[in-house]
Amino acid sequence: MSRARTARRIAAGAAYGGGGLGLVGVAAVGLVLAEVQFAKRTVGTGLPDPPRADGLYGGEFGGPELSPGPLRMAMLGDSTAAGLGVRRARQTPGALLASGLAAVAERPVELRNVALSGAMSDDLDRQVSLLLDGDGPAPDVSVVIIGANDVTRRMPLTQSVRLLTAAVRRLRLAGSEVVVGTCPDLGTIEPVYQPLRWMARRVSRQLAAAQTIGVVALGARTVSMGDMLGPEFAANPREMFGPDSYHPSAEGYATAAMAVLPTLCAALGVWPESDRLDVSRNEDMLPVAEAASAAAGEPGTEVTAARGPWALLKHRRRRRLPAEPAREPAAPSGAGAPGA
């Protein structure tokens, strides 16, 4: 059975009920996940909570009182979305993306991060409620990074996709554009050895592809996190991974943010490139399941809906993030959601 067909089956199971883990048997998956959990205990965390990054970015483009006011951006998901492993707010992925979006749009960006370290997809409903169940307007754009904990804690893939799509649907109905960073490749965890590394990679890529199928149908865009953007991390693991050898370092988060930024900006219509395909970069229009499967194996790849059962497979040019701000952003009034 092809990877695309497996992903389509998982996504269908999420939509209609039923379904399972895909090609990898239950016993094998249990062995993989036990090994991944052992790897996580081996590297350990011992990390402090991520710094709060909520606040206004790009203040040089105008204050909140100026029309049309700042863009509103939200971060949801797990420790990767929260920025676990860095010490300064400006080093978190939310702050990096807000700064980059402000620079591209030439408009201030107000960030609210409700991601939680250790979160699984069943926490997304709570996170969305923090953003929507109030007097303020919904985010203009929401970035969701989720999935790794679902795999390591044995959540059925169909349930994981179902919970994610429910959260994305709520955000889309509220008027927010949505960008999903799909499940990273757990086969890159160093203490996991072959053949378990291959199997961990297979399960996490199945989930990533199924996540894409589910959310693209709702008008969201996805960016493949893959093996946390592969060549850079493989070539410089000491620089790209943090002190626990599991979460990214400040340099690693910056590399990941550079891959997500073009899609984030495109979702709001402020990226200088259009959605037209560039064949010189191997971009293509494919059936959604095939596009999702291809993206799962190629980090940094964007998938966005085209028409009918088709989707665009994009490889947008990365843009270097703006220089770090001289000081941490001030928290906006009324921002009380936890960032970690």
How would you describe this structure to a colleague?
The chain is α/β, with parallel strands linked by helices and 340 residues long. Helices cover 40% and strands 12% of the residues. The protein is built from 12 helices and 9 strands. The chain has helices at 3-16, 26-43, 79-82, 93-105, 124-132, 148-152, 157-173, 196-216, 231-235, 237-240, 250-267, 288-296, and strands spanning 55-57, 71-77, 109-113, 141-145, 177-181, 221-223, 284-287, 302-305, 310-314. Strands 1-3-2-4-5-6-8-9-7 form a 9-stranded mixed β-sheet, with helices on both faces. The longest helix has 21 residues, at 196-216. Residues 19-27 and 333-340 have low confidence and may be disordered.
SSE topology:
Blueprint lengths: L2 H14 L9 H18 L11 E3 L13 E7 L1 H4 L10 H13 L3 E5 L10 H9 L8 E5 L2 H5 L4 H17 L3 E5 L14 H21 L4 E3 L7 H5 L1 H4 L9 H18 L16 E4 H9 L5 E4 L4 E5 L26
Parallel strand pairs: 2-3, 2-4, 4-5, 5-6
Antiparallel strand pairs: 1-3, 6-8, 7-9, 8-9
